[in-house]
Write a structure and sequence with these properties.
Largest sheet: 4 strands, antiparallel
Number of helices: 4
Strand content: 5-15%
Strand order of the largest sheet: 5-8-11-12
Order of helices and strands: HHEEHEEEEEEHEEEE
Number of strands: 12
Distance between the termini: 104 Å
């Protein structure tokens, strides 16, 4: 055997040895794939929770800006809150929402959009000149007027919220709110809902043991714990309060929705 043949055989033998040492068997490859799948199954839910938590924090940041903007508006208008919504009288058109009144105090229109709202609430009817043609309305203010439908609950008759709507009447003065730190001003809204007009439409109605919260004018037996509130953040919602601060709420109480102290 000449020198060239010996070198060739030596190289071939070394290559086979190298391949046998470094190659994966089918079983080993399946084990690696299984480990990767297990790790993915463990990590993906955690990543999803982290993403949701980030959206919740972004929404709470919106609420803080909205709470501050609402207080700045009141400061500039003799401590009167903006209307929940307001028609221009006497013709009754166009229609302004609280977002339109607070807009000069906001840094961006995106503050009215909740990252977890999908799809977003929008309003395009009778928009005033100089305002966005389509208003993002993921948040609602609290102009509720006590019980509308359950008149037997006399303790909650006239248990008004802080806001009021304009039917040729003045707005509500901050001095009329006895518990500014404990009264919900603006909160996450359920999809396709644009206001809260009675206390039965809050999750607090269910939490108080009074039966399902109302969706519009009827108890919502399919979603009894919600009402018009948007519980899209890990089963809870974000809210600003009448002193301007914001907080995350898992379950509200009836007293949070009224302007009265000690409710």
């Amino acid at each position: 055997m000449n020198t060239e043949q010996r070198c060739f055989r030596t190289r071939a033998s070394s290559k086979r040895n190298c391949l046998s040492i470094s190659s994966f068997t089918i079983i080993e490859l399946l084990v690696v794939i299984a480990i990767i799948a297990i790790l993915a199954a463990l990590l993906l839910p955690a990543l999803a929770r982290a993403k949701q938590q980030g959206k919740q924090i972004a929404c709470l940041s919106n609420m803080r800006q909205i709470g501050l903007g609402t207080m700045l508006y009141a400061h500039d208008y003799q401590d009167y809150l903006p209307y929940g919504y307001a028609y221009v009288w006497p013709q009754g058109t166009p229609l302004y929402w609280w977002q339109d009144f607070c807009r000069p105090y906001m840094q961006t229109e995106k503050v009215y959009s909740c990252a977890s709202a999908s799809p977003h609430n929008t309003w395009s009817d009778q928009r005033p000149p100089g305002t966005p043609k389509v208003l993002t309305n993921d948040y609602v203010c609290n102009p509720q007027g006590g019980v509308f439908y359950m008149k037997g609950k006399k303790d909650w008759l006239g248990a008004n919220g802080p806001f009021i709507n304009n039917w040729n009447n003045p707005s509500r003065h901050l001095a009329d709110i006895q518990d500014t730190t404990g009264t919900i001003a603006i909160c996450d809204a359920r999809f396709s809902v644009f206001e809260i007009w009675c206390i039965e439409q809050t999750d607090a109605w269910y939490n108080a043991g009074f039966g399902p919260a109302y969706l519009f004018d009827k108890p919502d037996t399919k979603n009894p714990t919600v009402g018009h509130v948007g519980k899209r953040h890990n089963g809870g919602f974000n809210s600003s309060f009448c002193d301007g601060h914001a907080n995350y709420i898992k379950k509200s109480t009836l007293g949070m929705w009224t302007s009265r102290a000690n409710d």
